[in-house]
Amino acid sequence: MPEGHTVHRLARALDGLFGGEVLAVSSPQGRFAGGAALLDGHRMVAAEAWGKQLFCAFAPDRSGDALWLRVHLGLYGAWSFAGDGSADVVHAIGAPRRRIGERETTPDDDASGAADAVGEWTPPAPRGAVRLRLVGAHAVADLTGPTACEVLTGAEKAAIEARLGPDPIREDGGRGSLEASRAAFVDRVRRSRVTVGQQLMDQAVIAGVGNIYRAEALFRAGVDPLRPGRDVPEATLAGIWDDLVVLMRDGAERGAIVTTRPEHRLADGGGGRVTRQNTDGDAGAVPRDASFYVYHRDGLPCRVCGAPVLTKELAGRNLFWCGVCQA
After folding, report:
1. Which residue among 38, 79, 162, 224 is the one 20 to 30 A from 281 at the CA level?
2. Active-site residues: which are they?
3. CB 123 within 8 A of CB 116
4. How far is CA 258 from the centre of its chain?
5. In angstroms, rounded to a whole number, what is the distance separating the alpha carbons of residues 212 and 230?
6. Helix, strand, coil shares of the chain as percentages rounded to 5?
7. CB under 8 Å to 53, separation ≥6 — which residues?
8. Are 129 and 284 in contact (CB under 8 A)?
9. pLDDT, tens digit only, all 327 positions of the chain
């Protein structure tokens, strides 16, 4: 499942491609035909993310209220893009699950559509079970396999956001300021005896954190993931929030998760499970086998102390940590 930084990058991509344009909206698969009809012919005026939730605003209808498209990719959702070559178009942002982030490449010729003799662009035909298709003047975006895809009113959008925890990537964290967002996160964790490792994956506690950021932030803080939240000092939790602000915003900028400090980036020599990054092969990029401290490094030596990295299942997800550094 894409983590929050991927969804923020997706929102930026959609805004860059379609912001201010009147779009043709359809559901080639047919499962979203009613929702698509509500948006078809409307102008997309905003695209934003809150955690793993994507929201796109369409210009007010006759009642004066904007309509919001909400998408949650879940485990299998993905967006695919193609264009006429006049705009920066990214391809296949999102799932499948084996990716931790989006792969960004320019589309091949077959996927890019074609211009006819008078210069008009013809979008490529939908591929697969496309739930939602957005077509603008220069680009097309296809959504497949999302967990959620619906049209909301402004009030319904606000109700969903009210149930989400603060988001470290949002400019104000979603709570008016980063300070208020940090305080809300610390208070929520400290009010529960549920393990801090489990709480960091709860989108009502903090939005956008997934399995990678959970494992890596706790390692960097030296916190045992199985420690009850109420037993973690306030200052430590505040430090975890501040660290996630830096790490997740960096991920949103570079398109890959890198949590290791430069002095700890000795490569594994191919050990551990292969985790693809969309920056693989880029000049100067941190290689995937040097990007993480503990995630998918179970059984390998800790980069700091040399003890074997541990793993166990927690609330249906694999947890990774160092029993020495996070004692």
Report:
1. 79
2. 2-3, 52, 317
3. no
4. 14
5. 23
6. 30, 20, 50
7. 7, 70, 71, 72, 160, 161, 164, 207
8. no
9. 789 999 999 999 999 999 999 999 999 999 999 999 999 999 999 999 999 999 999 997 666 789 999 999 999 999 998 888 776 665 556 543 222 233 433 333 344 454 443 357 789 999 999 999 999 999 999 999 999 999 999 999 999 999 999 999 999 999 999 999 999 999 999 999 999 999 999 999 999 999 999 999 999 999 999 999 999 999 999 999 999 999 999 999 988 999 999 999 875 544 555 455 554 555 567 887 899 999 999 999 999 999 999 999 998 899 999 999 999
Closest by Cα among 99, 122, 97 to 112: 122
For residues 15 and 120, is the Cβ–Cβ distance under 8 A?
Answer: no
Helices (H), ranges, 47-195: 154-162, 178-190
* First vs last C-alpha separation in the chain: 29
CA distance 10 to 54: 8
